[in-house]
């Protein structure tokens, strides 16, 4: 196993800077997720680790070895692609064994005293590689062990066309597992699956990492995948690393407005407000509402009030409640809003609302009596608020 280190790594395509001065230390045995919108540089960063893209500048290490000029086949990595990339004419077994056969080396971690009598696979491949050779028998042991770990044993003799999308993705995972590489690289492996299969396969990958403890770098644009799978998450935008932290810290303490709006579903609401510290306490005045700032935030927001007062307040949908269902609601936290759309989801209700000229979403208790086209009194949990400088978009708290 090994960590991966980016030191001031850059990637340019002509005049386009796809990855800009990336400094990132992926720890040994860590599951790190690279997340961001399309074109942010996350897949380019992954492909540079794999050796599929040349580095324009900086140093890339896998373990203690600088790999800038090391061929992909010599980097001891295994990659899982979005498109499965299976050979349609080969069985599941032969697809999983193919990489080991091409490496012409003994599989790692196989006890040679417990090998099967012969290899397994298609007649042509057996004749090419020698079904009774020690290496082919070791490959069989490695493939069958990997197949058992991801519930593929009964499908080893099938062709890819005879498998579902989820099973094909498991074959692609199995092909990577048998390599026992230092690092797994996964490039949006779940994006071709339907919603239910995505949830199932997401859990399988997490269980697999917990068992194998292999350093894994996973690329996705889906923040739900990132939050549920990663030990840490690296959020990227326009080739620049915005924030690197644990899922909960990204959610609770976003470094800027981009991270705040990207992490969380539904996305964080933003309200342009003016801070007022002229009287007793500090208040935020928005278009059609006024909120008192909690004492814990008075110092930071009071400073902003004295330097111009303009702030972008952030509040997540789950931190806005139907005031009728809040016991002892603080009058300073009540906001009158027009309900535009009501979306009942069973366990919760989404309210698309408008206050002044600002649209926002509230995620409220299913017992709400709010109706589309009517006014509703909402409770803003000010202790959960975020505040950002509207010019730099950096967090003030």
Radius of gyration, in angstroms, nearest whole number:
26 Å
**Overall structural domain count:** 2
Q: Largest sheet, described in full?
A: 6 strands, mixed
What gross morphology would you assign?
Answer: elongated
CATH topology of the largest domain: Rossmann fold
**Looking across the biggest beta sheet, what order are the strands in?**
6-7-8-3-9-10
Total number of helical segments?
A: 10
Q: From N to C, what is the helix and strand string?
A: EEEHEEEHHHHEHEHEEHHEEEHEEEEEEE
Low-pLDDT segments: none
Overall CATH architecture of the largest domain: 3-Layer(aba) Sandwich
Total DSSP E strands: 20
Mean pLDDT: 89
- Beta-strand content: 25-35%
Cα(first) to Cα(last) distance is 38 Å
CATH superfamily of the largest domain, please?
A: P-loop containing nucleotide triphosphate hydrolases
Supply the CATH class of the largest domain. Alpha Beta
Q: Structural class per helix/strand content?
A: alpha+beta
Helix content: 25-40%
What is this entry, summarized?
The chain is an alpha+beta fold and 397 residues long. 27% of the residues lie in helices and 30% in strands.
